[in-house]
Structure formats: C-alpha cells, structure tokens
Design goal:
Layout lengths: L2 E7 L7 H13 L5 E7 L11 H4 L3 E2 L5 E2 L2 H8 L9 E3 H14 L9 H13 L8 E6 L9 H14 L4 E8 L2 E2 L4 E2 L2 H12 L6 E6 L5 H11 L6 E5 L7 H7 L2 H9 L9 H11 L3 E9 L9 H13 L2 E9 H7 L2 H4 L4 E4 L8 H14 L3 E4 L1 H13 L7 E2 L9 E5 L2 E4 L4 E4 L11 E9 L4 H6 L3 E8 L1 E3 L4 H6 L2 E6 L6 E6 L5 E4 L14 H17 L1 H4 L12
Parallel strand pairs: 1-6, 1-7, 2-5, 2-6, 7-10, 10-11, 12-13, 12-14, 14-15, 15-25, 16-17
Antiparallel strand pairs: 3-4, 8-9, 17-22, 18-19, 20-21, 20-23, 23-24, 24-25
Length: about 550
C-alpha cells in the first residue's frame, strides 16, 4: 500500500512549496523509495495553458502533452519521475469531471454537493496511482485560509480516515519572519497558520519553517508547544544559496527521518552524493560566462523558470557559473542592440506568444548572426531566427510569421492546420477558429537529426524525443531558398514534414529548435543542448579573452555525473 504525504502552505504565498515537495521526493528517492508527486491547484481554469505568464509563471509541458503548473518542473528536476496529465489537478478539472458524470447520469437520484462528490473526485485523483509507488506526495496550492482551497483541504483531511493515520503524513510550510528593526524572529504567524489548519481538522506531523536566519532552539520549543507538535518536527527551512541545497538542508534538519519513522520504512542513510556534487560545482565554478536572455516576460522571472534552471544545469556540466543578463526585447526596439549585447558571451531568445517585442528579438538574432556570437533560439526564438534569415540573407523583404502578419508575401512561419501525431498515430487538425486551450502541438514528438550538425554532436544519437508547445511551424515552401543561402535543417520529424532544428553554415554555434528542451533537463542530468550551448559560450569567451579563459579545456565541456 502506498503512503501519502500532504504538503500545505501558510502565512503567505511563494514560500516554495514546490521546492519543498520536490526535495522531499529527492530525499525519499535517495533512500531507495519510489515516489510520485501531484499538484492540486485551487484555481478554476482547466489547466494553466491559457494563463498569462505574468499571472502564473511558465507553463510546464509533460511528455503526454499536458500543460501544467511550473511546480511540476521542480518535481521532475529533483526526482527521476516522468510526469503526466494525472499529476496536476485543478478545481476546474475536478468540477468538470463531476459535472460530466452528473450529465451522464452517474449520480441519479442524488443531490451533487461539494461533500462528498467533489471531495471524492479529489481523493480519486490522489489515489489514482495507489500501489504503484512507495510514497505519493501531494502539494496543495494556495495558502491556508483561502476560500478556493477548502475542498482540497477537506479531501486530504478525509484521507487519514480512508487509508489510516499511520499511512498519512501532513507537512505544513510556514513563515517565521525576521523583524530587522527589532532584531527578532516572530513565531506568531506560524501559530496562527497552524491554528487555521487545525480548525479544519488537520494536525500537521511536521512544520517546515521558512526563515532568513537559523531558528534558535528556544523558538523551536515555542512553536512546538503552541502548535502541538514534537520539537524535532519543527524543521528549519532556512534560505540557502541555491535551491539544489534544499534536499541536503532538510535532511540535516531531520525531515526525512521523521517521514521514514512515521511510515515504518527501513531506516538507512540516504545517498546524497549527487546533490552535494551539484552544489559543489555551483558554489566553486572554474569558469563563468554571461548569457543574454532576450524575452518578453522578463519582469516575472518565473515565466522562464525551466529555461534558467536548464542554463544553470549546462553551467554545472561545464563547471561554469552562468551570469544572466535579462533584456526586454522591447527595449532593444527602442534603444538598439549595442547598448545591451556588446559584452555578452552568448544570446538566448526563448519562446512566447503574440507580436509584442518581436522586432527586438529579430534584431537581436541579426546581431548574433553577424557578430558570430553563440545563439540559441527556442520555439518562437527559432521562428524569429528563420524570419531574420529570410529577410536579411535571402532578401525576402517583409518575411514574417502569419501569427504577426496574416498578409505577408513571405509566410516563412505559418499556422499548420494538419499534422501527423507520431504518439497517437493519428492526423491532428486545427484551425484559427479552434479553442485556444489544449489545441497546440503539445508533448513529446520524435525528431531525426542530420549528420555533421551541432545537434547530433550534442545528443550523440540520431533520433530524439522532445516536448512541444506551439501553433505555428516552419513553412516548407521556403526550404530551398533558406538552405541555398546557408541555413541547415538539422532536425525534422521522421517523415521530414516538420522542421524541428535549424542551424547556420557560416557560424561557430547557431541553433534554433521548435521544441522546448528546457522541460527535460535535470541538475544531475543536464540537457545536452544546454551543455553544448554553454560550451560554445565558453569558447567564445576564450577566443575574445584568452588570458581569462586559458584554464578552460575540453575535459570540462559537457562533463557528466
């Protein structure tokens, strides 16, 4: 029988429940246990696919094409799980399922209510992988006291009675703020948060107390007394230099020992050697590079969470610190590229939607191409690279994507309405009139790599699977013109109908991919393209400043664990 861990949050949002849940998963895996992690989100959207990045941060895409909460990215990066649609449940999905059942007649004669019908549906989602894993971790989004999360909290309260209290562990992430003017840590917010939790029938087994500074024993005793927990269950969750220190930090506080004892698992020391090596490489890098990230949503860095983490992973594999230079593409439109890009070692243009800031991205790519600066374009970044090349190298004046200009004479990027889904072996059809939610090319698709390309050099194999999230595609009608002028099609779908990767013949390292490789990178298993990109940036820096980078050798490039 599976054991269940439920993680809730209190006092304020953004305390890092996702990191905490992922770290617990990492610690249990390090003890040889199998884990699964779910995110229960209280908002009414079916999924976050139609939400603005400014509202909810990035949308993390799974292999099976689910558009999910960004916390699922943390779960995959910290563990060995490959997540699915069933790992992210929203109020919208739960209610949608219940209403469909009601219309189908499954509740004939019953008044459909929050309890038991909605709570039963939530519990069914939580228990959907019962018996397949040693431990199932569920993170409840939002903060204790929010109205919208009450059905989820009631459902996890009931789980203790459904599966037995010995099989359930409640962890509550809370805040112990440091009041600088008074020079004191304050425990009252945590006391009130736990009071709210207990009022709805949940007694936490452990309190994860976020704080700027270490929490003294006296404060832990006070929290334990007023929150009705053992003192060793008051876990200090102290700010650390990198999120990849959190598993080791929580282990040092004894969190995994508490869980192991509660569930009666074998008490053996976890193997945290890989996590310690990740942290060592991050804190003691041999090199550093500056990479410009030219995007549209840079005011909220979580919009590019997987992307920045993947660059950090590429740095880890190269023993290199990544210095990010965040640039709004609209600023480039206003002030030009030289002001922002003259001193960077590499340029990355990420994905996005809509026409705002597009010309700034295109001008950025022109600069990278002409100055021979290592360039990496992802999704929209690749599409902008095709547009830039068509305009400025092929002479196709006004070339564009039909996303931005429906009447362009040269639609080098266009809305593809039919394509073959190699996973389901079916023909997919979409139109501009289709619903926005869940109608893009989503999930993992196969890609065949060309010989003698940066792509195959990075991957080391001819066939790969990568995750997608986009509506617009490379227009094959322009393949001849583009390749005749120096563009290389280095990755396509197995039947050659979909262009997945482009490179440039006359450039040291220029690569654009239609997919999102950042969704498959882990700190212990850095994605090969990100590792190769950072290696190229290091070589660029060494070519410009040999006296700085003389110590860089190939033994560090794309180093693995």
């Amino acid at each position: 029988m599976s054991k269940y861990i439920f993680l809730t949050g209190g006092v304020v949002s953004s305390l890092g429940k996702g990191i905490a849940a992922a770290s617990i998963g990492a610690l249990l895996e390090a003890r040889g246990l199998t884990v699964n992690i779910l995110k229960l989100d209280p908002y009414i959207n079916i999924d976050p696919g139609t939400l603005s990045p400014y509202q909810h941060g990035e949308v993390f895409v799974t292999d099976d094409g689910a558009e999910t909460d960004l916390d699922l990215g943390h779960y995959e990066r910290f563990t060995h799980i490959t997540l699915k649609q069933a790992n992210n449940w929203t109020t919208g999905r739960i209610y949608d399922n219940v209403i469909k059942k009601e219309r189908h007649g499954e509740y004939l004669g019953e008044t459909v209510q929050v309890v038991p019908h909605i709570t039963d549906e939530i519990k069914a989602a939580i228990k959907s992988t019962e018996g397949k894993y040693d431990v199932i971790i569920s993170e409840v989004g939002g903060t204790i006291g929010d109205i919208e999360s009450l059905p989820f909290l009631e459902a996890i309260r009931q789980m203790r009675y459904d599966v037995g209290r010995e099989n359930v562990f409640y962890a509550h992430l809370t805040l112990v703020p440091y009041i600088k003017s008074a020079g004191e840590l304050k425990t009252k917010p945590t006391q009130h948060s736990v009071k709210e939790l207990r009022a709805i029938g949940i007694q936490p087994d452990a309190l994860l107390c976020r704080s700027d500074i270490p929490i003294p024993i006296g404060h832990k005793k006070k929290i334990a007394l007023f929150c009705n927990v053992e003192m060793d269950a008051v876990i200090g969750a102290i700010d650390v230099e990198t999120i990849y220190m959190v598993p080791v930090s929580l282990h040092n506080e004894g969190l995994d020992n508490l869980i192991i004892k509660k569930f009666g698992f074998e008490e053996k020391e976890p193997d945290l050697s890989k996590w310690k090596e990740v942290v060592r490489r991050m804190l003691e890098p041999a090199h550093e590079v500056t990479i410009a990230l030219v995007g549209k949503y840079i005011d909220l860095k979580d919009s590019y969470k997987s992307l920045t983490e993947s660059l950090i992973h590429g740095g880890i594999s190269n023993n290199t610190k990544i210095n990010f230079q965040w640039i709004d593409s609209e600023d480039i439109e206003k002030h030009g590229v030289e002001k922002y890009l003259s001193d960077v070692d590499g340029i990355l243009v990420p994905g996005g939607f809509g026409g705002r800031g597009i010309e700034g991205k295109i001008e950025t790519i022109r600069y990278a191409r002409e100055k021979k600066i290592p360039f990496f374009g992802i999704c929209l970044g690749m599409q902008c690279a095709v547009i830039e090349f068509a305009r400025n190298v092929c002479g196709l004046k006004g070339a564009n994507s039909t996303e931005f200009d429906e009447n362009t004479l040269y639609p080098v990027i266009y809305h593809m309405e039919k394509w073959f889904d190699f996973r389901t072996k079916t023909l997919q059809e979409r139109s501009t009139e289709s619903n926005k939610g869940g109608t893009m090319r989503l999930g993992a698709y196969p890609c065949a790599l060309a010989k003698k390309s940066h792509a195959i050099n990075a991957y080391g194999k001819p066939n790969i699977f990568e995750r997608h999230r986009h509506r617009y595609e490379f227009n094959n009608e322009f393949t001849g013109c583009l390749t005749d002028n120096g563009m290389i099609i280095s990755g396509t779908s197995p039947d050659g109908s979909l262009v997945e990767i482009i490179e440039l013949r006359d450039h040291p390292w220029f690569l654009g991919c239609q997919f999102h490789p950042e969704f498959k990178s882990r700190p212990t298993e850095p994605h090969p393209i990100f590792s190769a990109f950072v290696t190229a940036c290091l070589k660029e820096k060494r070519s410009l400043f040999p006296f700085i980078a003389d110590s860089f050798t190939e033994e560090y490039a794309a180093d693995s664990f």
